[in-house]
């Protein structure tokens, strides 16, 4: 392993990935160039497993914030420390900022020109997050993009789009759905979806609560 | 891929529905091995044997075998098998790795990181 990226002097530039990450990138680009593996097949395979890296981490952060007001305050003021409290990290110098959805504000995260993503809490980015249409249109027409994800927002809801940078990765703290007062922190975490933490969906209300 | 193919691997970190990864590069390395095998560049049996040998070799060097370095072994095994099958070679892999590192250092944020093909 090489040393972890020294960050202070490289604000304007990309963080150099870790030694194994660079070796994988080298192998992948060499093999794709030679036509030995197909990039689309690789992406499809990775997409099968992307939810296996870490969305549960983010869901636990959200559930804790919903049930512990003091934690939520710490999360919104210093996300790095608050996330580390739950034992999650490995962000290699990127700072986390958590933005809160309310009845009047809806947040959406994007990386307009590459695919910066808070993978330590959300896992691998979904293929659509890396796609050119999402990257460009989520800034130009966020309401249209959200509509395509099936999320229709009222006109009086302000949409804020957060463009990730080399230094800052965003995570959306979605609204806690109604009818979940009796749920435990673990049960709440099970409700939280990856898409709700990117901001392209709301957290759905639990089905069994509606039948009570 | 068939569950028995995953089960053939030594101590793959997994849960009830499949493999789990700690970092994105691990999933990429996983996908590369699966793809190369599916394309017929090596059999899954050859892959499992190379990986097992890599894990055994590091064990002989006295490194802990607690699963924390599973995908480091995976990557080393992949580089070995790619070399053995003449799909690439260590010099090319090292040069390409350096080229990517340089591309990251050179590229301002927001620009796609691309290799300098003239270099």
Question: What would the keywords be for this entry?
Answer:
A: 212 residues, alpha/beta, Nitrile Hydratase, Chain A, two-stranded parallel ribbon, 4 strands, disordered N terminus, B: 119 residues, mainly alpha, 2 domains, two-stranded antiparallel sheet
Secondary structure elements and pairings:
The complex is a heterodimer of chains A (212) and B (119).
Chain A: H1 19-33, H2 39-49, H3 55-67, H4 69-77, H5 79-85, E1 95-100, E2 105-110, H6 119-122, H7 127-130, H8 132-140, H9 142-148, E3 158-163, E4 168-173, H10 185-191, H11 194-198, H12 207-210
Parallel strand pairs in A: 1-4, 2-3
Chain B: H1 3-7, E1 14-15, E2 18-19, H2 24-38, H3 44-60, H4 70-84, H5 90-106
Antiparallel strand pairs in B: 1-2
Helix pairs in contact in B: 2-4, 3-4
> Strand count, sense and closure of the main sheet of chain B?
2 strands, antiparallel
- How far apart the termini of chain B lie comes to 39 Å
Cross-sheet strand order for the largest sheet of chain A? 1-4
Order of helices and strands of chain B: HEEHHHH
CATH class of the largest domain in chain A: Alpha Beta
- Outline type of chain B: globular
Order of helices and strands of chain A: HHHHHEEHHHHEEHHH
**Which segments of chain A are poorly predicted (pLDDT under 50) over 5 or more consecutive residues?**
1-11
- What's the CATH H-level superfamily name of the largest domain in chain A? Nitrile hydratase alpha /Thiocyanate hydrolase gamma
Helix count from the secondary structure assignment of chain A? 12
Largest binding interface between chains: A-B, 40 and 48 residues
């Amino acid at each position: 392993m090489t040393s972890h990226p020294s960050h202070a002097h490289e604000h304007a530039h990309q963080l150099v990935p870790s030694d194994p990450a660079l070796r994988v990138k080298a192998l992948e680009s060499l093999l794709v160039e030679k036509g030995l593996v197909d990039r689309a097949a690789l992406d499809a395979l990775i997409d099968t497993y992307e939810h296996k890296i870490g969305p549960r981490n983010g869901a636990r952060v959200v559930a804790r914030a919903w049930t512990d007001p003091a934690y939520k305050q710490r999360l919104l003021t210093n996300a790095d420390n608050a996330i580390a409290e739950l034992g999650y990290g490995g962000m290699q110098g990127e700072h986390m900022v958590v933005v809160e959805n309310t009845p009047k504000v809806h947040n959406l995260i994007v990386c307009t020109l590459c695919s910066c993503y808070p993978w330590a809490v959300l896992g691998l980015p979904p293929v659509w997050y890396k796609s050119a249409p999402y990257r460009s249109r989520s800034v130009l027409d966020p309401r249209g993009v959200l509509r395509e994800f099936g999320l229709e927002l009222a006109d009086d809801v302000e949409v804020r789009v957060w463009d990730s940078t080399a230094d800052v990765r965003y995570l959306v703290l979605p609204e806690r759905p109604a009818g979940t007062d009796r749920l435990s922190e673990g049960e709440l975490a099970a409700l939280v979806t990856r898409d709700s933490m990117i901001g392209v969906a709301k957290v759905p209300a639990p089905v069994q609560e509606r039948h009570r | 891929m068939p569950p028995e193919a995953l089960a053939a691997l030594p101590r793959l970190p997994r849960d009830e529905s499949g493999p789990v990864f700690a970092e994105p590069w691990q999933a990429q390395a996983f996908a590369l091995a699966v793809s190369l095998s599916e394309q017929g560049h090596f059999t899954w049996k050859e892959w499992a044997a190379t990986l097992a040998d890599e894990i055994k070799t590091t064990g002989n060097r006295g490194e802990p075998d607690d699963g924390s370095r599973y995908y480091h072994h995976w990557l080393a095994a992949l580089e070995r098998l790619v070399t053995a099958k003449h799909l690439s070679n260590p010099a090319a892999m090292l040069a390409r790795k350096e080229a990517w590192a340089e591309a990251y250092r050179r590229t301002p944020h927001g620009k796609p990181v691309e290799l300098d093909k003239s270099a």
